[in-house]
Design a protein that fits this description.
With 234 residues, the protein is mostly beta strands. It has one domain (2-231). It is built from two helices and 15 strands. A six-stranded antiparallel sheet has the order 13-14-9-10-12-15, with no helix packed on it. Strands 2-4-7-8 form a four-stranded antiparallel sheet. A hairpin with a 2-residue loop joins strand 5 (92-96) and strand 6 (99-103). It is globular. The termini are far apart.
Length: 234
C-alpha cells in the first residue's frame, strides 16, 4: 500500500509550470490514444510505502495466486518506490481519513529509493539515498546512435536492442515458467544486448517530471531479458 495522489490536478514541472489536469475531465481528441498517452505521462509512478505484506507468496503449483517469480521482499515502510504506470492507473484505491492510498502488487514495483542513514544529509542529494532494484529489474541508460537515413527528422535515434546498466539489484531465484532464468552477474556500466522483442518501458515517461535521478530517464527491464554483456563497465 502506497500513499496516492487523489488527482494530477496542479502537478508541476521542475521549472514550476503547472501541467496537471483533473482526471474526471474528458478532452476531445480525434484519437483516443493521444488522451491515454497524456494521462499516462501524468500518472503517479512513485510514492512512499505506507504498509507491506508480512511475506511474499511463491508456489509454482498455484498459478492463480502465486508471485510469478521467487524473490525477497526488499521494501520497507517509508521507502519511495517506483512502479508500473499501467498498474498505477488501474490499482485499487482507497481513501481513509482524508488520505488516498493505492494497492500496488509487489511484482509491479521496479526500484526503491531509501534514505542512507550513514550519509550526512548535507552531502550531494544522490549520495544521501540507496537505490535498490526490485523483482530482478535493472535500469538501463538508452544508447543513442547516429541516424544516417536521408529522410530522418532527428539526427540521433535510440538503439532498442541494447543499453547500459546503471542500476541492478538481486536476480530472482526462480520463475514459475522454467524456461526463464535471470542473467546472474551484471555491474554498473555494463553494455548489454537484449533479447529480441524486449518490451522497453521508461521508469519515468517525462524528464521534466522525473524524480529518481535528476532529469535522467532509464529503461526498465528484467535481468531475464539480457542475452549477453557486450562490454564491461569501467
Amino acid at each position: 500500500m502506497v500513499e496516492a495522489e487523489i488527482s494530477a490536478e496542479g502537478k508541476q514541472t521542475k521549472g514550476g509550470v503547472v501541467i496537471g489536469h483533473s482526471e474526471d475531465v474528458t478532452f476531445y481528441s480525434s484519437e483516443e490514444s493521444s488522451k491515454n498517452a497524456w494521462e499516462a505521462d501524468l500518472a503517479q509512478v512513485c510514492a512512499p510505502v505506507y504498509k507491506l505484506p508480512q511475506k511474499l507468496y511463491y508456489n509454482p503449483q498455484d498459478l492463480n495466486s502465486s508471485m510469478p517469480w521467487d524473490c525477497d521482499m526488499e521494501l520497507r515502510v517509508g521507502d519511495r518506490v517506483w512502479f508500473s504506470v499501467l498498474e498505477s492507473r488501474n490499482a485499487v484505491s482507497v481513501i481513509c481519513e482524508g488520505k488516498a492510498y493505492k494497492l500496488i502488487p509487489y511484482r509491479d514495483c521496479y526500484v526503491t529509493k531509501r534514505r542512507n542513514l550513514k550519509t550526512n544529509i548535507t552531502r550531494y542529494y544522490s549520495d544521501a539515498y540507496d537505490k535498490i532494484c526490485l523483482n530482478g529489474f535493472i535500469l538501463l541508460e538508452p544508447i543513442y546512435v547516429k541516424n544516417t537515413s536521408p529522410f530522418a527528422i532527428d539526427s540521433e535515434t535510440i538503439d532498442m536492442t541494447r543499453g547500459i546498466v546503471r542500476y541492478a539489484g538481486k536476480p530472482n531465484r526462480e520463475y514459475i515458467f522454467e524456461q526463464y532464468c535471470d542473467f546472474p552477474v551484471l555491474e554498473n556500466g555494463d553494455e548489454v544486448l537484449l533479447a529480441p522483442k524486449t518490451a522497453l518501458t521508461y521508469l519515468e515517461r517525462k524528464s521534466y517530471l522525473a524524480q529518481f535521478d535528476g532529469d535522467k530517464q532509464y529503461w526498465v527491464v528484467q535481468r531475464r531479458r539480457v542475452s549477453m554483456v557486450l562490454s564491461k563497465g569501467n
